[in-house]
Amino acid sequence: MTPGLTPAQATHERSPSELKPHPEAGRVPAMPAAEYAAFRADIEQRGLQVPLEITKSGIVLDGRQRLRVALELGLEQVQVRIVAPADELDHMLRAAILRRQLTASQKAALVLELELERYEQLRGEAADRQRANLKQSAEVARLPPRGKTRDLAAGWAGVGARTLQDAATVREHDPQLFEQVKEGELGAADAARRVRRALRDQALSAPRPLPLGPFELIYADPPWQLGGAHSDRAPENHYPTQPLAEIEGLAVPAADDAILFLWAVSSLLPEALAVMEAWGFDYRTSLVWVKDKIGLGAWVRHRHELLLVGRKGSFPAPDPAERPDSVIEAARGRHSQKPACVYELLERMYPQASKLELFARTSRPGWSAWGNQLPGSTADEGTEGR
Questions:
Q1: In DSSP terms, which residues pair with 13 in a beta bridge?
Q2: pLDDT of 200-219, one tens digit each?
Q3: What per-residue string of b and e applies to 211-238 under the rule 16 or more CB within 10 Å gives b?
Q4: Percent of the chain scoring above 90 in pLDDT
Q5: Domain chopping of the chain, boundaries
Q6: Phi–psi pair at 112, nearest 5 degrees
Q7: Residue 135: left if φ>0, alpha if ψ -120 to 50, beta else—which one?
Q8: Distance, CA of 68 to CA of 72 (rounded, Å)
Q9: CB 350 within 8 A of CB 318
Q10: Crossing angle of helices 104-131 and 146-157, rounded to 10°
Q11: Cβ(73)–Cβ(43) under 8 Å?
């Protein structure tokens, strides 16, 4: 025994073969392969620098990876310290959170499991006592509100309350994704975005058929997929998107002679032209919307969007007096929202044409509309798309 230490604080030597991981050790994420290789090489060179913490019966509470290395290297003896915590799982998880090089998301996931299990246990015990009519007021009062529990847990784990809440959202709705957060494969914020998006999409109404038509003027703003669907700036965070093949396959109820006004993302201009062709229209020209604020972009920072014009059959050009300026200058609205003045522009160009807006967000007098972001629905509205 080391002089001046109590038996509980003293270190001893034990054979690694006598020690066993805790039955719940799998709840602590394993080291990534590269990190473990460096860890093993350091122990091989310098030996174990930190004793393993074990129970009296040889169950390892802190040092599972050190035990693994010792067994792999064939070490005959390792330094151990016997501990007897009131809650072994609590001790093990706290040691992992405070000592291991875990990400903030991993720490949040671990502390969430630890604290919420304790919280739910206390709630259950208090409810049982309340039902038994034993000290119900005093017992329930001692339980901290869940929000306060999470704030306290986030504080001692060194993570933000938002990160802890994101981890809680994932744990509640997608246990498989939660395991990826624990293993460090996915951040809590990213995982929570995926969960919220899935819940939103599940809440969408079942698709309705397209209006029968036929319509002479089609106005469309398809829900393009831009790639990077899990980015915090992806359109999928705002509305469901569709693969190109689904957009191309839409049975647009256009008249034999019709005009199409199709919003195109600059980076997907070839795809937009392919959609126009699939819907039976030939490209004619374009308008450009110039915005009041600059946006993002991989090659250039975009401040414009294109409104492509296509024709089907022998649909005529507008009267000369109603041919608009090809530049639309209007302020940006919410994500992907197009300027309201475009409706007026199209109505001036073709006042008598029957009109259908695809992927609509609002209803407008004189127009038929189809889209899942419409406020309410009518017999000729559908919900596929945006």
A1: 79
A2: 777 666 567 888 889 999 99
A3: bebebbbbbbbbbbbeeeeeeeebbbbb
A4: 31
A5: 11-99, 104-202, 215-370
A6: -65, -45
A7: left
A8: 6
A9: yes
A10: 150
A11: yes
Claim: this prediction has a pTM higher than 0.85: no
CATH code of domain 11-99: 3.90.1530.10
Among 80, 40, 32, smallest CA distance to 56 is for 80
**What is 215-370's CATH topology?**
Rossmann fold (3.40.50)
The CA angle 60-65-69, to the nearest 5 degrees, is 110
Identify the CA nearest to 306 among candidates 364, 363, 266. 266
Q: pLDDT tens digits for 223-265?
A: 887 655 455 555 545 566 678 898 999 999 999 999 999 999 8
Residues sharing a CB contact under 8 Å with residue 110, sequence separation 6 or more, in sequence order: 27, 28, 29, 93, 96, 97, 102, 157, 182
Residue that is written with structure tokens 């090089």 in the block: 101
Name the strand (E) or helix (H) holding 281. none
Here the tokens at position 109 are 């996931």
